[in-house]
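HOLO CASE FILE
Compound: P53
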Amino acid sequence: MSKYSLPKNFLWGGAVAANQLEGAYKEENKGLSVADIMTAGANGKNREITDGVVDGKYYPSHEAIDFYHRYKEDIKLFAEMGFKCFRTSIAWSRIFPKGDEDQPNEAGLKFYDDLFDECRKYGIEPVITLSHFEIPYHLITKYGGWRNRKLIDFFTHYAEIVFKRYRDKVTYWMTFNEIDNQTDYTNQFLMATNSGLILKDNQADAEALMYQAAHYELVASALAVHLGHRINPNFKIGCMINMTPIYPASSKPVDIFQAEKAMQRRYWFADVHALGKYPRNMEAFFAKNELRRDITAEDRLILSEGTVDYIGLSYYNSMTVAYKKENPDFHFVGPELVVDNPNVEKSSWGWPIDPLGFRYSLNWLADHYHKPLMVVENGLGAYDKVENNGEIHDPYRIDYLKAHIRAMIDAVEEDGVEVLGYTPWGCIDLVSAGTGQMSKRYGFIYVDKDDQGHGSLKRIKKDSFFWYQKVIQSNGTALD
Ligand code: P53
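Model generated. Tokens follow.
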């Protein structure tokens, strides 16, 4: 077999996150996490972040799809599809209910022991994120979330406990899910999920808070990488970047340069994780604008010594930006510069569908960082319909995944990119992070539950279940 083809042990699987599927939000001493105070929104309607849990409001994470009690049944279905790996996250607040304790919660640790054993029973490799849009709520109310340097100690203590406990059960780890999402610091949801920053109406200092919080997270991540390698030298510890390549709206030089600045403003997170230092463009930006106020010489040393083993990425879509004359210094935050790209189709939620953008992304990351990549999220959120006979026909999902897998294989075979695995998002229907809906479905397995929280929670295999089973069986050669 050529070096430039998918290896035999390629990690095909699926991905989920604790707060979007486990439910059991208070069980066995679990503390509240930031996800537990977010209500359900809808397409175009933001989720509300409440002051603690408010009576009478609906919080989709509280029960989610009840994976906490049904994981055996669900993992059996993953095994039936032929999964080689399963990406999930540990709910930090199951291990440390408040986040600042010395001693972990044994019942929480035990749950993940059982879960990882159940995966291993079928030869499924767990791929584990330490913080997937997850922080104990107490760390927000008492310390202000990641704006506080103390969080570095709480996080590394948590990392040490789980690294030691699962030393022989887990090899693949990631630190912070989609750490670069907070680039758009005007989006309260992204600030809260990434960094536990809840700003109320006071957005004035949001940009500086975001850069400071992100810096502490990056230091904590580097410390965790360093620590993990000492606990088990075989650990593979990655970062997790939401890769949304940013295209220029036209061939006008101002549009091209605006897209370049937008890429810099988003992907410096990957530079720090993979190269161990801030890129010069960000150092210049910070020197000019007082935005990252606290960085020590020791921090810089830690960053340089804790570079990741691989780059985990999610890819859903590309984004297109245009220069605006009101923004002559090419500053980039997010939506204010985004324009419609007439050359790509859109999902029902308005997300562009761009498989070649995926191949472009894999090339871009490989060229910049020279590290192996792992695709830990990709997929299409869509409405599904259960037919009268109980079947679910989802050719749109198959089409999306087929085109993206083909693009990934092209990147490997034609462009020489090294990819370790592919875990499509939401391999079983779960709560949408962005909207809190159940009806935005990604799964190969349908879960009977609606946006108001009603349903039997019954699992049903969709057509895509049988399609993906064949994809895995053929190691990506039987896509049609
Ligand atoms: P949902 C924003 C932009 C790109 C990816 O997203 C994002 C988000 C947050 O909504 O999240 C990732 O559920 C994330 C998952 C999430 C998935 O993409 O909004 O890592 O937790 O569910 C899909 O459709």
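CASE NOTES: Residues 11-473 form a domain with the TIM Barrel fold (CATH 3.20.20.80). The chain has a mean pLDDT of 97.
CLOSED: yes
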